[in-house]
Amino acid sequence: MLTTEPNRGPSQALRTLTRGETVWRTERADRYSIIVDAADFFFAAKQAMLRARHSIVLIGWDFDARIEIEPEGRTLEGPNRIGALLDWLAKRRPDLDVRILKWDLGMLNSLARGETPFFMLSWMMGGRVRLKLDGAHPPLAAHHMKLLVIDEALAFCGGIDMTTGRWDTREHEENRPGRRSPRGKPLGPWHDATSCVSGPAAKALAELARARWERATGETMDALAGEADLWPDGLPVDFADIDIGIARTAPEYEDREQIAEIEATTFAVIRAARRTLYIESQYFASRRVAELLAERLGEPDGPEVVVINPDTADGWLEAKAMDSARIRMMRLLRDADRFDRFRILYPVNEAGSPIYVHAKIMVADDRVLKLGSANLNNRSMGYDTECDLVITARDEDEETQRGITAKRDGLIAEHLRMSLDDWRDALARHEGRLVGALDALRGGRLEPLPIRELTVDEELLAESDLADPERPVGWRDRIGSVLRRR
User: Fold this and answer.
1) How far apart are CA 385 and CA 393, in angstroms?
2) What is the reported pLDDT for 11?
């Protein structure tokens, strides 16, 4: 695993990513970049797809064929809507293998929002683009990982699905023209993140995508050479020639044993943080994670912990379950925070509208950065399928350390609506303390999440195995657990 020694910090703790424990495998990346918010991701992804010659494999929790890649005006060749683009590419290049794998229960989302069945039905019936629904999971589990692999030479991995409501820029302005549903409905601001990788690490993600396809469909996909240079124009390279750990979550199912690499990595990173632990997550509902954070907050020389969440979960049931569980976790950490080192905040734009946080990022000091599809809830630790990428910096690797710090600081500057230089100046004035600098600057930009009393219904759903299961178990056992708690 990520080896740890108490209170020694990441210089001792983050030297090793152990195959089969905290990561599935570690592979070299020629280039690796973090892409913040979907406007840049969609643009980079279309550039890469336009260059595809052999295969495009898109694996997601959700997919909407109607979304526009550039909703405020097309500048790239080809159709602007993703469904039409994939059809167009497949027609122009008969040898191009285009496949989409979508969570089967996610199809309900498509029907509920009135998505046209034209592309879906034609693709599922054997069109040039092949769409399959992935039902290889326990009851009500979700296939939540988000992968886009092109020619097995370039891969995107993170938290952004190609679906409705994801497109936004880093400014998150009110009433942004491009932030609308396919039917023209205005949508709220949305913060998200993914990554782009080339080299052997992309090849490994291609292998993961092929394995997902085979388990879902029974069909074997042939491996490709994966040597083309598909790096999108204008996408800065954040890290070059770096080892990347690939961590997964997958529930026990049929002949597959439980995979909990992301959980092991998450715990190891929390234990390793020495000065700062910066987290962005859609949810904050895992008691095991909260208990470990509470332990670190109780240490006199432990790290500061800053969590960026949305103000509330998306959807009535999720809000009831996830927000209620979050309040319990916040109480736990408030009681443990003897040295005033914990903040949990949500961002708002200039108009005061909450920005929905969908990114899944963890940064420990200047030594580790983890980004992917996994949230800090039970499902992501053991019940759904997830994929995270992890990079670490050794003591002597100052360039990687600077790169990790720059990504964290860039995220905070975005939330504070200020320049990176201004944020760094403020951080220096507070002697590098995140909490001190944020307390001085966050007014009207990052709001503290309130702790309130829970209703009876919320108490029932909070940390419920029905809403947020940690491992596959029988439904009788799960319902019985809820009833006993009530």
Assistant:
1) 27
2) 46
On whether residue 116 sits in a domain, the answer given is yes
CATH number at residue 145: 3.30.870.10
Q: Specify the pLDDT at position 105.
A: 80
Are 216 and 263 in the same domain?
no
Domain final position from 181, 210, 241: 241
- Residue 440's identity, in one-letter code, is A
Cα–Cα distance measured from residue 307 to residue 347, given in angstroms and rounded to the nearest whole number: 11
Statement: residue 12 has pLDDT above 50:
no
194 part of a folded domain: yes
Mark whether 218 and 363 lie in a shared domain: no
Distance of CA 273 to the CA centre of its chain: 20
Residues 327 and 439 in one domain: yes
Residues 82, 219: one domain? Answer: yes
Task: Show the tokens assigned to 434.
Answer: 């995140």
Residue 214 sits in the same domain as residue 321: no
Residue 479 in domain: no
Instruction: Tell me, yes or no, whether 463 lies in a domain.
Output: no
Residues 428-473: tens digit of each pLDDT: 999 999 999 999 999 999 999 998 877 666 666 656 666 678 877 6
What is the tally of structural domains in the chain? 2
pLDDT in tens, 325-377: 999 999 999 999 999 999 999 999 999 999 999 999 999 999 999 999 999 99
**Same domain flag for 191 and 327:** no
Q: What is the pLDDT of residues 182-216, one digit of tens each?
A: 999 999 999 999 999 999 999 999 999 999 999 99
Average pLDDT over residues 228-245: 96
- Averaged pLDDT for residues 60-76: 95
Q: Which residue range(s) make up the domain with 309?
A: 10-17+249-448
CA distance 394 to 16: 10
Beta-bridge partners for 242: 29
For 249, the token pair is 């979550």
Residues 95 and 217 in one domain: yes
